[in-house]
Amino acid sequence: MTGLDFSEIPLLDYSLALSAETKPQFILQLRNALMNVGFLYLSNTDSVVGPELIEELKSYIPKLFALPQDQKDKVRMANSPHFLGYSRLGSELTKGKTDNREQFDIATDHVSRWKPGDPDYYNVWGPSQYPDEDLIPGFQATMKTYLSAVSALGTHFITLIAEALSLPSDGLSRFYESPDRMQHRSKVVQYPVPTERSESDQGVGPHYDAGFLTILLQASPHPGLQVQNLSGDWIDAPPVPETFVINFGRALEFATQGIVRATSHRVLSPPVGSSSPRYSIPLFHNISLDVRVRDPKYELEFPAEILKLRDERGILSGTDSVNYSEFETQPSGMVQLMGRVKSHPDVAQRHYPALFERFFPDGLPAQGFAY
Ligand SMILES: O=C(O)CCC(=O)C(=O)O
Ligand SMILES: [Fe+2]
Known about the structure:
By secondary structure, the chain is α+β, with helices and mostly antiparallel strands. It has helices spanning 23-37, 51-65, 69-74, 139-164, 250-255, 304-313, 332-343, 345-351, 353-359; strands at residues 11-13, 39-43, 85-87, 93-94, 97-98, 102-107, 185-191, 202-207, 213-218, 225-228, 234-236, 243-248, 265-268, 278-285. Bound molecules: 2-oxoglutaric acid and fe (ii) ion (FE2).
């Protein structure tokens, strides 16, 4: 197969991974997705994330965005050194260009471990901000249950990835602390229908995700997500009912010496005239803050068979996406912090003035305010 020029996203059945008889088949399919595509659909995850929970969460999303603007602003991201909270439409940048989306960044429960003298990046994990309970009763509890369930799916999926790369199932555990010491970050996103022919159809611009893996719920039936193959073609990844989309990020690509593909993707705004916005909820499953993926201490030893497959496939060429090459030299927490600074300069100016100046020596860009 010419995996490099994939033209569709494979669909894997998670239940196959749960029985000894069918697991080898799943592991082979996962290996192909990891090495040649960088994206997959995952079905039959009911045992970890129940369909009722997903429906309940989806039902809250329109209510969340319909909250009065002053109530949304009350939990604005600029309040938070952890970059958690509400961002108004058009306040986020990807590669310096404005994204047309409105969102609440919400993470799994975690207290900030930062104390004076610690590196700044320890503060990139911390508590979330939720809208007042009486305005949207039950949302907070539902979101927290969802985040725990999807994080647990991610934690199990990491062991499957290890096996698909011919490592022992705990082969990637050095990149994690115990689950209670990890924070995984999510956001509830609304991509509004453009009201007139606007200059840009950028819901979110082309980018790689940063970490090991992202678990995405496409929470409305709209197309718009697209994935770039190595010929540069944009392949549609429309919502498939009762599946998650899973994709792999730059940290995993670096940590696996290029065996795994991080794949560039983007979201187009819904077409003018659509009757409702597009909704999605990605969860970025993090690795530990202190890991420097290229540190010899974290180097993984792969069997020759896997390295051979990588070499037969060939070296991956660059694309014009945000590239996160900082993983070469920086701890993961610092890469996360730098990414947040670039996407949310106004939040950075308030909480990380020195870093802000480094990336924006001419001051705040005209666009890019979280509030
Ligand atoms: O909204 C989506 O479907 C994908 C969003 C995305 O790629 C991201 O936020 O990193
Ligand atoms: Fe993404």
